[in-house]
Amino acid sequence: MAFDIPPPESCANRVIDCCGSTNDVARALGERGYPHLTWVAAREQDSGRGRLGRKWESMEGNLFLSVVVRIEDKSRWTWVPLAAAIAVAHGISQFADARIKWPNDIWVGGAKLGGILCEGVGSREGSFIIIGIGLNCATAPEGLDQKTVSLSDAAGLKVSAEDVRAPILAALERTLADLVENGAQAIRHAYEARAALTPGLAIEWGSGSGAVEGLGASGELVVVDENGSRVRLLAEDVKVRVVRKAADGSLL
Ligand code: BT5
Q1: Do the Cβ atoms of 164 and 213 come closer than 8 Å?
Q2: CB 56 within 8 A of CB 44
Q3: For the whole prediction, is pTM greater than 0.85?
Q4: How would DSSP label each residue in 60-72?
Q5: When you count CB atoms within 10 A of the terminal residue's CB, does the N or C end of the chain come out lower?
Q6: Which ligand 1 atom lies nearest to the CA of residue 148?
Q7: Residue 70: which of 117, 31, 115, 20 has the closest Cα?
Q8: Which among 56, 64, 152 is the best mutation to test ligand 1's pocket, defined by most ligand atoms within 8 Å of the CB?
Q9: Rg of the Cα atoms in the chain
């Protein structure tokens, strides 16, 4: 079943019953000029999406949250996905010790707990970014091409979308303010403290394989490929898979 986008006035800073994708509802809010950090969440989402047209399995009881982000200095924009991931990890820290799998996955124990989809929008009201956060609070989907986990299972107690929404929004406000005021360095340090793809880890991406070096100047993942060449992976382009760990930083 497809849902029409509800009137924006009835969605701003609210939990709505259902929609196709909360990112589309937030986009409509942004296009109407709603300010920085306006959010919308849905109890049900029937066309949740990930990057590159992938599907986001959206089961009832999980968090589907999208936020309008207005940051004037566009040189900061490439850091917004990592800032969002840091905010999610901090926002759920009372329930789980989450890692960030570059660029946008939230991992617990090597399984995917959540994902973030950032979309840039140009509009007459000014350009903005939509941060879309999907988090398996109650239930994780089964039978996917990667391991998944729910926050309730990770925490060993029932955790609802209501329990995490406000802490995540508060952490997002702090992290984005940090990015605006202090620049990428603040985000880089917070990311490194929670990075799942640590230096030396052997990974594969769309067209190659190599070892992780770290983050580049724009938040891209710098890797050294099999030929010893440095390659810069951009968040919008790649799906990264861990192969196995190289303790000395070399390829295995
Ligand atoms: C993401 O994409 O991880 C970003 C997901 C963002 C979802 C939120 S929900 C609120 C807002 N509204 C939307 O429509 N989207 C955002 P990506 O890196 O492309 O990962 C997609 C992959 O994750 C899929 O191909 C599956 O392998 C896996 N996956 C799908 N649903 C999952 C789930 N519920 N839990 C864990 N993994 C999932």
Answers
A1: no
A2: no
A3: yes
A4: TTSEEEEEEE--S
A5: N
A6: 36
A7: 31
A8: 56
A9: 18
Q: Residues 6 or more apart from 4 whose CB is under 8 A from it?
A: none
Kindly give the number of the ligand 1 atom that is closest to the alpha carbon of 111: 36
Structure-token match 């060993």, residue found:
156
Structure tokens, 214: 């770290």
* Nearest alpha carbon to residue 67 among 88, 87, 89, 38: 38
What would the pLDDT profile of 82-132 be if each residue is shown by its tens digit? 999 999 999 999 999 999 999 999 999 999 999 999 999 997 778 999 999
C-alpha distances in Å from residue 52, one per residue of 207, 222, 237, 247 = 15, 21, 8, 32
Task: Please work out whether the CB of residue 145 comes within 6 Å of at least one atom of ligand 1.
Answer: yes
CA angle at 188 for the pair 54 and 30, rounded to the nearest 5°: 50
Burial (CB count <10 Å: 0-12, 13-18, 19+), residue 117: buried
